[in-house]
Amino acid sequence: MEGEHPQTVADAAAADPEGFATALWDRHASPLLGTALRILRQREDAEDVVQEALIATVAKPPAIPSSALPAWLHRVVVNRCLDRLRRERRHGAETLSTIPPAAADSSPSPRRIDLQRAVAALPERARLVFVLHDVEGLQHAEIAALLGISSGTSKSQLFRARDLLRHRLLGTRPRASARVDEE
Amino acid sequence: MTYEEFRLLCVSDDPADRERARQIASAHPLWAETLAADARLLEAARLWRDEAPPWSRIRAKPVRRRARWPRVALVAASLVLGVPALVLVIGGADVPRASDGELLAGRALADVDVALRDQRRAIGALESAGSRRLARLESPDLRGDDASRLLVARARLEALDGTIARLEEYLATNPLHRSARLALLDAYQRKRIALDELVRGEDRA
């Protein structure tokens, strides 16, 4: 029956390679750059990652439904960003926690700058877990697999990150009372 | 329940855990404050997620800006590759134009890649023979007219090598740029011809 099998990305690319490449950059480059910037914080590195991911997609379009392409590209870019961070660590590149936050692109609200600065100042693992979970929308199981940690560690890093951010941004005390009795 | 246990419920992916955290916090003002702060953080995170910084590198369709490769590469291309290449690179009005920032994709990319590989292979085969011919410049017995011919050939090859290096460097970060790829292909072809002429000319001499 017609319409039973949705068109795949590979089909669309084969039918119109130029149009496929055009649409790929036009629709996805900008949001993917946002994701890469939040993880890597360096514009040049983020652009490299997105460029490489899109070129790889043009060279070998995935056989997935077209509707799944945004999520697929998001995952590819997240993976490539984390690979790059791992490589940088192996090669003794600049300590991640010392890298200044990426420059803002257009007059941002003070709140946005505050959040970005506060997130940039977090310990590296807590920063990554916060960005991947609370900003990029990944689940703890996915983050655990990507970072090579347990789900429990991912959760504890996330509440650590939120507590530090709450303290820095909202001025609340870092930790409330130690115990309550459940009814 | 400890604070850590409460926070693990707050950050859980399971909605039932988060609901339980809400119930516990409802009876404990300080923890309720923590949950409210989490909600504000998540709202700020959502706004951050929606940001899409403008893409400033080459795009998948023609853009109005000029190509961003170094001006020196344009000058070198015009000197070495001649008028057709200059027209190709900076975009002449009366010839088919490879638009700035336009990408090669799919079959077009594959075709140019095959042509570039072929040219590289042909150049590789000629280069050692060319180097041997140029080595004669060191010979004290070299006649004046032969020396002039070899010096011209060497200068031509050095200029082409410089252009090729700049184009390859540019393409390393912008691999799908149509004009740059075609200019590189043209430079390869000219280098192959220059080497071929050097080798044949020397053999005749």
Features:
heterodimer; A: 183 residues; mainly alpha; 8 helices; 0% strand; elongated; B: 205 residues; 72% helix; rod-shaped
Give the overall shape of chain A, derived from the CA principal axes. elongated
Q: Decide which structural class fits the backbone of chain A.
A: mainly alpha
How is the biggest beta sheet of chain A arranged?
none
Overall morphology of chain B:
rod-shaped
Helix content of chain B: over 70%
Low-confidence stretches of chain B: 59-69, 83-101
Quaternary structure classification: heterodimer
Order of helices and strands of chain B: HHHHHHHH
Strand content of chain B: under 5%
* N- and C-termini, Cα separation of chain B: 96 Å
Biggest sheet architecture of chain B = none
Q: How does this structure look, described?
A:
The complex is a heterodimer of chains A (183) and B (205). Chain A has 183 residues and is mostly helical. Chain A is built from 8 helices and no strands. About 15% of the residues of chain B have low confidence. Classes of the chains: A mainly alpha (183), B mainly alpha (205). Chains A and B meet through helix 2, helix 3, helix 5, helix 6 and helix 8 of A and helix 1, helix 3 and helix 6 of B.
Topology of this protein?
The complex is a heterodimer of chains A (183) and B (205).
Chain A lengths: L8 H7 L1 H24 L2 H17 L9 H22 L19 H11 L3 H12 L4 H8 L3 H20 L13
Helix pairs in contact in A: 1-2, 2-3, 2-4, 3-4, 5-8, 6-8, 7-8
Chain B lengths: L2 H8 L4 H12 L2 H21 L21 H11 L1 H8 L15 H30 L8 H30 L4 H27 L1
Helix pairs in contact in B: 1-2, 2-3, 4-5, 4-7, 6-8, 7-8
Short description:
The complex is a heterodimer of chains A (183) and B (205). With 183 residues, chain A is mainly α.
